[in-house]
């Protein structure tokens, strides 16, 4: 079974729309009107809806994952990104999320801490996900 995702407020809510258009079950913090909630509140919201949480906030969610494991509490999974994808990299982020979702089932994410691929790995696999050259900053 495919994992269902909750995208926290650190990530552009447009990602949820793009992933849903590709057949994934995804909601964002913006859509659930939970922007401004604490990490723990967003994590609880995701858990109650049986969704793995996707976040750029690895500094808070890696320790949260360890606390959950130490307390032996069940959760649908935590997916972090070490890379802070920017707006121009949204297509690359879609590719990273899809790569993870095709490699990991909902069951294999259960109680797990998983990480997205970096943009370099995503683009090596699928160069078509690169942002258009006209939106890259000068000097690149």
Keywords summarizing the entry:
alpha/beta; disordered C terminus; 5-stranded parallel sheet; 140 residues; globular
Task: Characterise the protein shown here.
This protein is α/β, with parallel strands linked by helices and 140 residues long. The protein has one domain (5-126). Helix content is 40%, strand content 11%. It contains six helices and five strands; from the N terminus they run E-H-E-H-E-H-E-H-H-E-H. A five-stranded parallel sheet has the order 2-1-3-4-5, with helices on both faces. Strand 1, helix 1 and strand 2 form a beta-alpha-beta unit. Helix 1 crosses helix 4. It is globular and about 40 Å long.
Structure at a glance:
The chain is of the alpha/beta class.
Write the layout of secondary structure elements.
Layout: E1 5-7, H1 14-21, E2 26-28, H2 39-48, E3 52-55, H3 58-70, E4 78-80, H4 90-103, H5 106-109, E5 113-115, H6 119-125
Parallel strand pairs: 1-2, 1-3, 3-4, 4-5
Helix pairs in contact: 1-4
Q: How much strand?
A: 5-15%
SSE run:
EHEHEHEHHEH
Radius of gyration: 15 Å
The N- and C-terminal alpha carbons lie at a distance of 41 Å
Q: Which secondary-structure class do the elements indicate?
A: alpha/beta
How many E strands?
Answer: 5
Determine the number of helices (DSSP H or I, runs of at least 4 residues): 6
The major beta sheet can be summarized as: 5 strands, parallel
Runs in which pLDDT lies below 50 for 5 or more consecutive residues are 133-140
